[in-house]
Write a structure and sequence with these properties.
The chain is mainly α. The chain is built from 18 helices and two strands.
């Protein structure tokens, strides 16, 4: 009788973990991808320029990059369920703050807080889910979690656009807050606590702050460099602060007991190459989609409303969803190195096509190039997510996964800042030279695509040079990694479970 009760309790915990973590991952990723579509309508409502509001996008990624590894460490030490619930509560509070904001600064502040919450939910959620399951059920649960993440990222722009044209842009955040609130009692009542007793109880908070100090002035300088002048004192000052913070970060990480980043891992060429590829792929697609959201909704360009712009992203989202189940067979046939290189080639060609944008272009001419960017990103990002964890020893897999996740957020923040600067400066320069608004915007879009394409060309070289010794064949865990790879690099669930201490409460 006691064994039956125990089995049912474990099953309830596993089901509760699957529901709470998958629903929250879907909401977090949908929220993240939806906000770029909302920038024009938020700008109109608050009176803040889109140039400044881009910090609602880059600020989220910046804070998430600084927090995501620390959130996982806190979960391993103090309990993944506890930290996961705290993440949900902070996410709810940030949604309410944004929805009630009367000005753009409130939106930006709320989004920065939301970056910390979203990173915490994703970091602890997958570990919590893995610790609640074993065997085939474990892999199935993580695969569903990854699929929920991918669906959320794909559906976000459409849902955000629909809500903006019906309930107002605040509607997205009210609904997200309500769904996240529903996950809290499910987690508390049905999910067992778990932690990692082997994890040192030291938390590298200084390293976390230094990551933010590296990224914030860098992004601020990239955003304003064209207006200030790239050789001006404020621009060079921002970059100097980033350099000094980087030196301080290296100094601290070599001396703390439990470093945020194990610098010895950076000697692993395959890990570094995979991580940089993730940064470039995730960064460039985030950057171009930010410009797409502005261009499609600008009255002097395609003049779409928020819902139409969200609907217009469906071919891009569908391309990634369709590609997910195909990537593992492709890797098995042509190898990971060739697949990654092919992905960057497709992205480079697609960005090259977008470089020919004219103000006479209609929506139909954007579809194939943007779908190509999404397909190429899926091809390179999925294998790189798996290779980043397969390139290290089992005990280092969690650290490698954390590095890759940080790189994904860093790429999104930096590339969005770069493309926002290019788009704004080219538009202003062309209008000042006498071009029409439509012509100026088209040329700005063109140069934005070129700036992203250059990084993808570098990605081709990176894939061919760094990953020359890849011999690994795809494993069963590959499918889950590919499904989640647009938002997260997964630690194989067996390794999470191996270090976990679970207690049903």
């Amino acid at each position: 009788m006691g064994d039956t009760v125990k089995v049912k309790t474990v099953q309830r915990s596993a089901l509760g973990a699957l529901i709470a973590t998958s629903v929250s991952a879907l909401v977090v990723n949908a929220n993240t991808s939806a906000v770029a579509i909302l920038i024009p309508v938020i700008s109109e409502d608050t009176g803040m320029s889109t140039d400044t509001l881009q910090w609602a996008v880059t600020g989220y990624s910046l804070v998430a990059a600084a927090v995501i590894i620390t959130a996982g460490v806190l979960g391993d030490i103090f309990g993944r369920r506890l930290i996961f619930v705290i993440g949900l509560l902070v996410f709810i509070a940030s949604c309410v703050l944004i929805a009630l904001a009367e000005g753009g600064m409130g939106v930006i502040l709320g989004r920065c807080i939301q970056g910390a919450a979203g990173a915490t939910i994703l970091a602890c959620g997958m570990s919590l889910l893995s610790a609640a399951n074993t065997g085939k059920a474990q892999l199935r649960a993580v695969t569903l979690w990854g699929a929920a993440s991918a669906v959320g990222a794909a559906a976000g722009p459409l849902v955000g656009g629909l809500l903006a044209t019906t309930l107002g842009w605040q509607g997205l955040f009210w609904i997200d807050a309500a769904i996240a609130a529903a996950c809290v009692p499910v987690t508390l009542l049905a999910v067992a606590e778990s932690n990692d007793p082997s994890r040192p109880r030291s938390v590298d908070l200084v390293g976390t702050v230094l990551i933010a100090l590296i990224l914030a002035p860098l992004i601020y300088g990239l955003t304003n460099g064209s207006a200030w002048g790239w050789g001006s004192l404020p621009t060079l000052g921002c970059f100097a602060v980033s350099v000094l913070a980087t030196v301080a970060f290296i100094f601290v990480e070599r001396r703390v007991k439990a470093p945020l980043l194990d610098l010895d891992l950076l000697r692993n060429k395959l890990l570094v190459g995979s991580t940089l590829s993730i940064l470039l792929g995730a960064g460039t697609i985030n950057g171009i989609m930010y410009v797409v959201s502005l261009y499609f909704q600008d009255p002097s360009a395609l003049a779409m409303d928020s819902f139409q712009a969200g609907l217009a992203t469906l071919p891009i989202a569908a391309s990634m969803v369709v590609m997910s189940p195909l990537i593992t067979p492709i890797v098995g046939r042509i190898g990971a190195r060739t697949t990654v290189a092919l992905g960057f080639v497709i992205m480079s060609v697609s960005f090259a096509a977008l470089a020919f944008v004219q103000d006479s272009w209609g929506y139909a001419l954007f579809v194939l190039p943007l779908a190509g960017v999404a397909i190429g990103m899926a091809l390179q990002n999925g294998p790189c997510s798996s290779l980043s964890t397969a390139s290290v020893e089992p005990g280092e897999v969690g650290a490698a996964s954390g590095i890759s996740n940080m790189a994904r957020y860093v790429g999104a923040a930096v590339m969005t800042a770069i493309v926002a600067s290019v788009y704004g400066s080219v538009t202003a320069t062309r209008v000042a030279a006498g071009a029409s608004e439509g012509e100026a915007l088209a040329e700005a879009f063109s140069w934005s695509a070129i700036s992203m394409g250059i990084w993808c060309v570098l990605g081709i070289a990176l894939a061919l040079l760094v990953a020359r010794n890849i011999t690994r064949k795809p494993a069963s865990f590959e499918a889950a990694s590919v499904a989640a790879s647009t938002a997260h690099t997964l630690t194989p669930p067996a390794l999470v479970r191996a270090g976990a201490s679970s207690a049903v409460e």
